[in-house]
Automatic annotation (TrEMBL):
<feature type="region of interest" description="Disordered">
    <location>
        <begin position="482"/>
        <end position="510"/>
    </location>
</feature>
<protein>
    <recommendedName>
        <fullName>Protein disulfide-isomerase</fullName>
        <ecNumber>5.3.4.1</ecNumber>
    </recommendedName>
</protein>
<dbReference type="InterPro" id="IPR013766">
    <property type="entry name" value="Thioredoxin_domain"/>
</dbReference>
<dbReference type="Pfam" id="PF00085">
    <property type="entry name" value="Thioredoxin"/>
</dbReference>
<feature type="disulfide bond" description="Redox-active">
    <location>
        <begin position="408"/>
        <end position="411"/>
    </location>
</feature>
<dbReference type="InterPro" id="IPR005788">
    <property type="entry name" value="PDI_thioredoxin-like_dom"/>
</dbReference>
<keyword id="KW-0677">Repeat</keyword>
<dbReference type="GO" id="GO:0034976">
    <property type="term" value="P:response to endoplasmic reticulum stress"/>
</dbReference>
<feature type="domain" description="Thioredoxin">
    <location>
        <begin position="341"/>
        <end position="486"/>
    </location>
</feature>
<comment type="function">
    <text>Participates in the folding of proteins containing disulfide bonds, may be involved in glycosylation, prolyl hydroxylation and triglyceride transfer.</text>
</comment>
<keyword id="KW-0325">Glycoprotein</keyword>
<dbReference type="InterPro" id="IPR005792">
    <property type="entry name" value="Prot_disulphide_isomerase"/>
</dbReference>
<dbReference type="Pfam" id="PF13848">
    <property type="entry name" value="Thioredoxin_6"/>
</dbReference>
<dbReference type="InterPro" id="IPR036249">
    <property type="entry name" value="Thioredoxin-like_sf"/>
</dbReference>
<feature type="domain" description="Thioredoxin">
    <location>
        <begin position="16"/>
        <end position="145"/>
    </location>
</feature>
<dbReference type="GO" id="GO:0005788">
    <property type="term" value="C:endoplasmic reticulum lumen"/>
</dbReference>
<keyword id="KW-1015">Disulfide bond</keyword>
């Protein structure tokens, strides 16, 4: 889960870059004819079953990204309606109760979700293209054509093979046979992520040995060795070849949207993720880049992926990891289980020994924590990651702790209630009411299962840990604490506590 969130932060930054270039397109021309078809559960199958190729957006009326997409999508629909053959764009309000079955059928998990449906809806594929009108048009034109385009001339090669992207070419003496079929099957399978072409003349291609006659697969890439060949035509081996060769040794994260797909791949990998952040405009950036690359080459295939990020583009990541700019240059490694390792104020020569020490298990895990508050005199005690052990686990007290987020409405509603509970226990030294800002502090995910805010836990003085599942009322919380607290250590307190609470209750009545 932690890893998902970090992707969001990176992508958030990327979305801003991507959208800034095309925000100004049409709001005026919306009125007249709508090119996007509106479908619902009554007519979805009828329409879709008649189409070889149709694009369906599942949206919700309240979703901001959907609203932003709508004019672009409509514009693309209008352009594509005169494509030969016409390409149909449709939408389904997946928020409508009656359409929810459709949404489930197409595994809609977020909004907007766009699907490309082929063969009368028999085959569904995720839309992974851009969200601006021109981008949508270009992407869908490609998707509606053959999965692999034939390259017959140098011009074909130049127009198809984009220097900024992965492109995969099969070279074949003839366009038939098992190798060609396996290549085509792979192109069909991976067409939403990669572009494919085939040719019988390797001399047309921009790089690589031009005398080969094939069968051979050549993958062009905008980084590292720039192209790589393979001759293994087993479908699985081909796929593995494509996936592995299309990952850079070091993924670059900056404001260039061309790097976006590689950043996404980086985060989708199950590997531990090493991220070096520095200011790319600074003159010291070069020695860092070359040293980092050496380390990445050295640890290739050892379960670590490497990314280098420009400070300017990495605000989201900094916030997420609780990092500050004065720690730059820094390297942070995040394992798939969420554990993090940090080396701030790094020098180029530190990289290799530090990564090796990490590999050898010699680097202690890093946790994000707010500073320990200097005074903590409010009724509800402030806990930060660095005081969680002391206050919750080592204090020998009964502790109710709330994990909250500053922006969360339910947390705001709960705050005065917790305050009252804390006040009513003020004279009971064996009970602590506490709160922790879970957006600013790491919490051990093997101990606390925090999926939403607020999440409350109760730890009794004798060490039992329970997730609070009672009412979020003063009475409910107090009842729960009384039921679950460790009675043996605080018998003598009961009277004063009862008194406090009955006084409090009478106050309420006034
Ligand atoms: C499908 O049905 C809905 C609801 O009746 C209607 O609004 C929509 O226009 C129909 N779509 C098509 C393409 O007929
Ligand atoms: C094509 O792929 C299939 C399935 O992986 C495999 O059995 C077959 O050997 C492949 N053909 C060639 C020529 O590699
Ligand atoms: C990066 O370095 C350049 C040149 O030294 C400087 O102008 C810029 O403000 C720095 N960026 C950040 C985010 O510190």
């Amino acid at each position: 889960m932690a890893i998902r969130v970090s992707i969001c932060f990176f992508l958030f930054a990327l979305t801003i870059f991507a959208s800034s270039s095309f925000t100004r397109i049409s709001a005026e021309e919306a009125e007249s004819k709508e090119f996007v078809l509106t479908l619902d559960h009554t007519n979805f199958s009828d329409i879709v079953s008649k189409q070889d190729f149709i694009v369906v957006e599942f949206y919700a009326p309240w979703c901001g990204h959907c609203k932003k997409l709508a004019p672009e999508y409509e514009k693309a629909a209008s352009v594509l309606s005169s494509h030969d053959p016409p390409i149909t764009l449709a939408k389904v309000d997946a928020n409508e109760e009656v359409n929810k079955e459709l949404a489930t059928e197409f595994e809609v998990k977020g909004f907007p979700t766009i699907k490309i449906l082929r063969n009368g809806g028999k085959h569904a594929q995720e839309y992974k293209g851009p969200r601006d009108a021109d981008g949508i048009v270009a992407y869908l034109k490609k998707q509606s054509g053959p999965a692999s385009a034939e390259i017959k001339s140098v011009e074909d090669a130049t127009s198809l093979i984009d220097d900024k992207k992965i492109f995969i070419v099969g070279v074949f003496p003839k366009f038939s046979g098992e190798e060609f079929e396996n290549f085509t099957a792979l192109a069909e399978k991976l067409r939403s992520e990669y572009e494919f072409g085939h040719t019988s003349d390797a001399k047309l291609l921009p790089r690589g040995e031009s005398s080969v006659t094939g069968p051979i697969v050549r993958l062009f890439k905008p980084f590292d060795e720039l192209f790589v060949d393979s001759q293994d035509f087993h479908v699985d081996a081909l796929e593995k070849f494509v996936e592995e060769s299309s990952l850079p040794v070091v993924t670059v994260f900056n404001s260039d949207p061309n790097n976006h797909p590689f950043v996404v791949k980086f985060f989708n990998s199950p590997n531990a993720k090493a991220m070096l952040f520095l200011n790319f405009s600074n003159e010291v950036a070069d020695p860092f880049q070359s040293k980092y690359r050496e380390v990445a080459e050295q640890f290739k295939g050892e379960g670590i992926s490497f990314l280098i990020g420009d400070l300017d583009a990495s605000q989201g990541a900094f916030q997420y990891f609780g990092l500050s700019e004065d720690q730059v240059p820094l390297i942070i490694i995040q394992k798939d289980n969420g554990q993090k390792y940090l080396k701030p104020n790094l020098e180029p020569d530190h990289i290799a020994p530090w990564v090796k020490a990490y590999k050898d298990g010699e680097v202690p895990a890093y946790k994000k924590s707010e500073p320990i508050p200097e005074s903590n005199n409010e009724p509800v005690k402030v806990v930060v990651a660095d005081t969680l052990q002391d206050i919750v686990f080592n204090s020998g007290k009964n502790v109710l702790i709330e994990f909250y987020a500053p922006w969360c409405g339910h947390c705001k509603k709960l705050a005065p209630i917790l305050d009252e509970v804390a006040v009513s226990y003020e004279n009971d030294a064996a009970v602590v009411i506490a709160k922790l800002d879970a957006t600013a502090n790491d919490i051990p995910s093997d101990t606390f299962d925090v999926k939403g805010y607020p999440t409350l836990y109760f730890k009794s003085a004798n060490g039992d840990l329970l997730q609070y599942d009672g009412d979020r009322t003063k009475e409910g919380i107090i009842e729960y604490i009384e039921k679950n607290r460790d009675k043996t250590t605080s018998q003598d307190k009961t009277t004063s506590e009862d008194k406090t609470r009955s006084q409090d209750a009478s106050k309420d009545e006034l």
